[in-house]
From TrEMBL:
Protein name listed in UniProt: Thiamine diphosphokinase
EC number: 2.7.6.2
Spans through the membrane: none
One Pfam family of this chain: TPK_catalytic
Organism: Paenochrobactrum glaciei
PANTHER family in the cross-refs: THIAMINE PYROPHOSPHOKINASE
Keyword Kinase in annotation: yes
Keywords, in A-Z order: ATP-binding, Kinase, Nucleotide-binding, Transferase
Length: 209
């Protein structure tokens, strides 16, 4: 499996769990996400973007990293450019670090929906800030290695059919969940969390305990 980590411009905390997840991966940075390379102690193999949110000292610090520079007026975000490049380079699994928070809620929502689109296409993708993780949920059966006691929510992007949740404080059995329902918000992991879905698209977001 070829794992790529893409450094994005949102919030990130370096934890032992995150370090274990990214061990042995290849790194790409999207614009200002390069700042996370400092705290992770890595040097990405490629830096992409329009560099409109990158501080001058960061440009100097990583001046030897190869860059792909794009105009500010373009038809996709720096993060999507980096994700597409990861897949072009042969990624079979991608971790988006710094995918949440920051000053752009629209970017956070894009990362969640973009990841779900790629999951629909059969790709493995994880979003992380170190203290939160998100995994797209498309039809199938899943087991998650989330720490016991973690609070998680399943947010739907469509009506969900046949949603089952096991090993949680509030299990569910083959329910239909309307779009926009809060029923699956703020559940708690109790053991090895198992989720299955027959139809629909959603995302599972967990606050790690």
């Amino acid at each position: 499996m070829s794992t790529f980590v893409i450094l994005l411009g949102g919030d990130m905390a370096v934890t032992d769990r995150l370090r274990a997840q990214i061990k042995g991966a290849r790194f790409l940075a999207a614009d200002g996400g390069m700042r996370h390379a400092l705290s992770l102690g890595v040097v990405p193999e490629l830096w992409l973007g329009d560099f409109d949110s990158t501080a001058a000292d960061l440009l100097e610090k990583f001046k030897d990293v190869p860059r792909q520079t794009f105009p500010v007026a373009k038809d996709m975000t720096d993060g999507e450019l980096a994700l597409n490049e990861a897949y072009r380079l042969g990624a079979t699994r991608v971790i988006l670090c710094g995918a949440f928070g920051g000053e752009r809620t629209d970017h956070t929502l894009l990362h969640l929906t973009m990841a779900t689109r790629h999951a629909i296409e059969g790709r493995q993708i994880l979003l992380s800030s170190g203290f939160e993780e998100a995994m797209p949920l498309v039809p199938g059966n899943y087991q998650y290695d989330l720490p016991d006691g973690s609070v998680f929510s399943i947010l739907s992007f469509s009506e969900l059919e046949g949603l089952t949740i096991e090993q949680a404080e509030w299990p569910l059995d083959k329910i239909t969940l309307p779009l926009g329902s809060s029923l699956t918000v703020s559940n708690v992991v109790r053991g090895t969390l198992c989720v299955s879905l027959r139809l629909g698209h959603a995302i599972l977001i967990a606050k790690l305990s």
